[in-house]
Each structure stands twice: as C-alpha cells, then as structure tokens.
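Hi V.,

You were right to ask for the full record rather than a summary. Here it is.
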Amino acid sequence: MLSMLTVQNFAIIDNIEIDFKPGLTILTGETGAGKSLIIDAIGLLLGDRASSTMVRSGYQKAIIEGVFSDYSDKISELLQSFGIDKTPDRELTIRKEIALTGKTTTRINGILVTVNELNAIAGLLADIHTQDDTKKMFQTIHYLDFIETEESKQILREYQNLLSKYLEALKRYRSLKKRAAEDANQLEFMRFQVTELINAKLSENEETDLEQELYILNNFENIFKNLASIKKLLEENNITGSLFEIGSILQKLSKIDNRFSEHVTQIDNAYYEIDDFAGFISSELSHLSFDEKRLNQINERLQFLKDLKRRYRKTIPELIGFQTELSNRINEFAQLDDFLVDAEKDVKIAYDKLVEVAIALSSKRKENALKLEQAIKDTLAELYLVHVQMEICFKDVVFSDMFNSAVFHSHGTDNLEILISFNVGEPLRDITKVASGGEMSRIMLALKTHLLKNMKLATMIFDEIDQGVSGAVASAIAKKLITISKDTQVLAITHLPIVASSADHHIFISKKTIGGRTVTVLEELTMERRIQEIAQMLSPDVQDDSVLALAKDMINHWK
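Predicted structure:
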C-alpha cells in the first residue's frame, strides 16, 4: 500500500507530506484546491508521462516521492531482476524528479530505472481511476483487458510464440514463391549470362597481367635502345677482362700480404656476376622482337573485358563470383518446387497449431466474459441498476485460409464489443452510446471491483467515481468502497457528503495565500473537523446544530 507521499514544487503545491493509512481514505475540498493534483502526483509515480509545465513557477524542478509498503512477492522478484536492492522493512520508494528543462528521472530505492521497468513494477502496486478513464477504458482496444486472467494470459503467451513461428514460416514460403516467380521469368537470361561468362574464361589476375604485357610492347623501342646501350658499354670498356686482370694481380699480392686475400673472392664474384649479366643482355637482345599481332590480341582482350565490366557493372573478381552465383541459382531452380512444397507443409503445420491455440484462447476468454458479465450485473444491482442486461460479444472469426495472416494479431484473434441495456424492453446497444454519466460511473466501479480481484493490487485510487449520482446510489457506492477497502487500501476524491462520511480517514485539501503565492494545504481531519466538513458539504450556507447533528449521524451510520 501507499504509506507516504511527498510532493515539492508541483503546480500550486509547494511542499507537502501525507501519511496514508490502510482502509478507506477520502479526500475532499473546494474545486481547484489541488485534490486532483495529489492523484496526478501519484499517477506520475506509477508511470504517467511528466511535463516541464508541471514544475512550480520560480523553481528548477519538481520532486515527487512515494513510499509503498508490504508489496507482493511478484514485485520482489521484479526488483531482483532489475538489480534493485530490497529493504529489510519491505518498503519500496519511488522518486521522480521533473526538471524545468524537460528531463525526468525516476529512481526506485535509489536506483535509476527505465520507463519500462517502472511500468512493470507500478502495474502491480496500484490502480488509478480518473474522470478521463471512463472514455479511455470503454474503447474496444481495452476490452480484452477486462476478461484476461492468469490462465488466459498463459494461453496468450503460447499463442504469441506460435504466431511468431507461423509468421516466420509464412515469410519463408512467400519469399521462396516470389523467388521462384522471379527466377522463372529470368531463367533464360540467367542461362545466357552464365554461358557468356563461362566463354569469357575469366581469371582474377588476367587484366593486370595483360596491362603489364601491353605496357612492355608499347615501350619496345625504348627497351631495345637501352639494352643495346648496356651491351655496347660492356663490350667497349671490356669490364669482364679488366676484372679478370685485377683478380690475377690480387692473387699475387695475397701471397705477399694476406690482407688482400678476401678481395680476391670479391673480384671473382663480381667478374662472374658481370659475365652473367652480359650474357642476359645479349640473350634479351637476341630474343627481343615486336609482335604486332600479340599487341592487337591484348588490346582486343582488354577492350572485351572493359565492355564486360561496363555491361555487368562489376569488376573481374565480382564477375567470377557472379558466375558462380548464377550457376547456383540455375541449379537451385530445379529444386525450388521441392523447397516450396516443404515450405508450404511448414506453414500448414504452424497454422494448424496456431489456430488450435487461438480457439482455446478465445474459448477461455468467453468463459471469463460470462463470469465478468454476471459479476458486473451483480455489482450493478447493488448500485441500484437492477434491470441491466449486458453481453460481451465476440465477433466471428473464420479460419479458412492458412495464407491469410490478417486474422491473427498479437493479442489473439478476438475482437469484442460490449452491449448493454439499462431498462426493461430496451434493446442491447453499444455501451458508450447508451450510458449516462451516473451509469458509467457505476459500471466503472463494478468493473474495477472485478479487475481488482484479478490484479490483487494493494491500493486503488478513485477520482470522483461517484460523479453523476446522488441519494441511495451514492450510499451504495460508499458501501462498495468500504467493501473494497477491507482488503485493499482505497483513496477516493468525492464531492458527496454521504461518500465522505464513510471514510476511515478524511483529508481536507484547501488553498491558501502564503507570502503572496497560492499554495495547497492538506489537513487530516479529527472527528470534530470531519463533522464540520461534512456539514459544510451538506449545507454550505447554513451551519446550525441540526446540520452538524446530521453530519455526525452520517458518520456514525457507517461505524
């Protein structure tokens, strides 16, 4: 339950701290005093979106902190999974800071948490019903939430797992079918391309080798001229003869002084290297010839390769890879029919399993819907709507085409509508089109009472759930709030004295001007102040003993 709430610099709230207790706590006060701001602050702790406009004028940030005690084991498991330390006294503190810059941070037990982590925990802590919730709740997208139970949620998880497998199998089948159609249209062209590439006899380094050979042929005269010059220099200067004579002299010197011995080997090596080099030059010159036919062949081949690359928009290595790819696709095309048959079988198996679980999920939800119908009618009877007829209708779903995935949604295959009639003899109609404000308030209370049993929340918060009712109906609503508060902490804003008189605890909210600024002030009322406040609600302009006595009797009525 929510045991303490601290709010600082939030709209017209300056700095307040509220200790909440078990049972039924009623909040009353004049319009605009800040009652709904208290609910808004709690809503922010439970995951509602914050805005910088919420920060009180003149301050840099608003701070909202709530302490929740005696939380469930499920919340304890979530805290552990999120790496949040549990306190010895089993208290959970949520702190939200809203900066004027727009940045919002949320911490649980001092640990920074994400929006998803906060929502996961907050969804198990409390539920808030505001005046806008009735319109939101009675939208078809929320109807499944009304009838979902742990058992149906378990079936839903199985359904979602099978849906993922079915969509994956269907995607593979459609991909293969599309590919088969594309390949069938392109088969002849692919065969032509493969034949052309095979006949091209491509090799990865051919283009580089040909360009090198072409460069040599184009520089034939220059090569011949330089080789001839080298040969002439070798012959005219008789370098080999000179090296031979130098070697002979060094051999004689080495016999006199062995310091010359190592140079004999050097000169001998130089002699043989120069002699080999001279032989190489002579050989190159003797074999050197200009082959114009080869030059033309190279130019033609390079042009062919250039045209091939331009047409395919690929390099030679890429063309070699593309040839392999085309060959594989042509070979695989013959097997695509077999692949398609297998893929279709996979879709059928996945579809049949999915349909089986979808039907089971729908069946369980229909059972839940019947229970909800009866539970709401029973509760509405307690709230003086005794002639209500209500049906939760499931729209028919036809499973006739395993390739039609449109009937499957993440929430299942069910689409619901809620039909209701409040008067004998009147036909059932869409609930949003026939219910008055007071009727919708009672339906919401009946619905929340039912959902509370499923959700097992520690705190329920109602913002004017009694709107649009009075008299005996208001008394019945008060009685229902008391019943709920026996097992669950209830916080409720009301303008009705009969509902306010049923409280275990009564907090009065007012506005005051302090230091030239309007601030919200909270007061937990004593019995004497409760009697005065309820008397004020009964008769704002008259505060005589009879009104005070009536207020006291109303309070004592619930004890």
